[in-house]
Every structure is written in C-alpha cells, then in structure tokens.
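Suppose you are handed only these lines of text.
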Amino acid sequence: MDMNERGKAPQPGIYELDVVDNVPFESVPGGSHFALTLQKPAWDGWTPGQFVMLRPKNWGADLLWARPFSICRVNEEGLTLFIQAKGRGTERLRALTPGDKVCLWGPLGKGFAVDAEHPTLLLAGGIGLAPFIGYAERHPNPAGLTLLFGHKIPERCYPTDLLKTSGVNFQAFPERCLEDREAFLARIREQMALIAKQQGLVLACGPQPFLKAIQGFAAECGARTQISLEHRMACGIGACLGCVCTTTEKWPVPSKAGLPVQTCTQGPVFWSDQIVLE
Ligand SMILES: Cc1cc2nc3c(=O)[nH]c(=O)nc-3n(C[C@H](O)[C@H](O)[C@H](O)COP(=O)(O)OP(=O)(O)OC[C@H]3O[C@@H](n4cnc5c(N)ncnc54)[C@H](O)[C@@H]3O)c2cc1C
Ligand code: FES
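From them, the structure of the protein bound to flavin-adenine dinucleotide can be written out as follows.
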C-alpha cells in the first residue's frame, strides 16, 4: 500500500526551497548529525522510504553532484532530513542556515510497503533510522510496529524522541564491542522468525553488512522482507547508471532477472529476495 495522501504514486518535481532550520545534535567522535528542515515542497505527497536529491545553491562549481537523502518527515513546519556529516557535501550541508537556498528533486524511488493487518518489524542501523521516523508517524497502526535500532554512536545523537512518542515499540541496541553486535543480530534473527510465523512484514535500512545479515535471516525464516539500499547516486532519476544493483531470479519481470537495475528508480527499497547484495 502506498501512503501517498491521494492514493496515487507521487510524481517527482524540481523545487527551489529555503532552509527553514538546521538543528545540530550532539557531536561525538565519528558522528555529527543534524536535522535540516526545508520549506515544504508543493508536491502531491510522498511515501516513507522515498528520497530526495539535494544540492544547495551555494555549492557553485565546487561540488557538482547533488546528494541523496531519505525523507525523514514532512509536516507544516516543512520537509526534514536527518543527516550524518560524512564528507565534503554533508559537511557543507551542516553549515546551511535559515534563508539559504537549495535545489531539491523528489520524491524519488520506491518507498516501503505498509501492512496494517499484521505486525511490522523495523530494523535500523545508525543513520538508517531516518526513513522510519516518517514511516512510524504516518502508519495507520503504529502500535503494530516494533523498531530495533542498532547504533555505534550514542543514542542522544539521533532523534529517537520522535519515535518514542509515536506509539512504536522502540528498542535501542548500543554497539560497543563485537559481542554487542552479535547480540543485536541474534535478537533480529529471533524477531524475524517470530514475524514470519505471524505473516508480518520486516523493513530494514542501514549499512550494507547489516542488510546482508538481514537478507540471510529472511531467506532462512521466510519473512516478507524489504531492504533499503544507500548506494552512491549522482542523478537520482535513472539516467547515469551510477547506482545499479543486480536482480535475482525472483525479480518480477523475468526478462530482467539476473541483470543490473537502477537503485534510484527501481529501489532504493527492494524485496530482499529480488536483489543481490555484494
Ligand atoms: C536513497 C539514499 C538515502 C540516504 N539517506 C540518508 C539519510 O537520510 N541521511 C544521511 O545522513 N545519509 C543518507 N544517505 C547517504 C548520503 O547520501 C551520503 O552520506 C552522502 O551522499 C555523502 O556525501 P558527502 O559529500 O558528505 O560524502 P563524500 O565526500 O562523497 O564521501 C564521504 C564518505 O561517505 C561515503 N559515502 C558516500 N555516499 C554514500 C552513501 N550513499 N552511503 C554510504 N556511504 C556513502 C564515501 O564512500 C566516503 O567514505 C542516503 C543515501 C541514499 C542512496
Ligand atoms: S543515480 Fe543515476 S541512475 Fe541512479
């Protein structure tokens, strides 16, 4: 089910928007996170799991390519992205102030499925939490959602308060050592097996090794599972072929099975048995 307000697939557009707010979260070694709020785009709607391409006007010729970010939430205050500063682009986004202009295109790609009749397990690793904030806020039955959140950087660096007030069963798993990671993965495996018995849905977003483990658990227990990929992207609209991933024999179009597809237009959310993770 698509959560677009008008019940049809939202059409992407290109928008010039003002920065409304840029709120830093506590910075710790290895992590500077911030919530960047832009003017609400005049679009038809969006589906959690979709993303936008963002390029501030002041990047000039220094940084040519826009950067992709999951839509975290959209409300009357605007469109909020939750970003981890990693490199040149995100560091410069961190410095944006209210009134700065950005160019944005979106909403792009395919978002997460919704099943209000069965329980849904959300699995987030680090910044992979971002799309689940909007997902939880817009879900017709948030009490049916359980979110397991694994993080190396302290929880106070993430907007987890928004999840705790949304009615979701939220559980955080700090990762300080290998044993913590193994315990988190063991918990995920156990919960996925339970969800499979309940005919529920599993949705995951996070780093590739995390998604690969989840893909393996899904194959083992048969849980209906979607994973959201964070490949590098340049255009976001299927034109540059810089973001491809390979499909499996389960891909719904048989003539495309085993072939590369664009993550930006065919994903970033895929059924876990339909793509190969490197
Ligand atoms: C669909 C999608 C949704 C995303 N959503 C979010 C989000 O909500 N919040 C957020 O903080 N980030 C998100 N990302 C990742 C974000 O786009 C990258 O971190 C960003 O483009 C890095 O730009 P940069 O110029 O700062 O880094 P660069 O200088 O280009 O690279 C710095 C480092 O980051 C790594 N990197 C670059 N791109 C990615 C990527 N796509 N994924 C993982 N590592 C990368 C590089 O390999 C390098 O080590 C998303 C990516 C995709 C494809
Ligand atoms: S980013 Fe250009 S084809 Fe996907």
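What can we learn from it? The chain has two domains: 13-108, 120-230. The pocket of FE2/S2 (inorganic) cluster (ligand 2) is lined by residues 233-236, 238-243, 262, 264 (CB under 6 Å).
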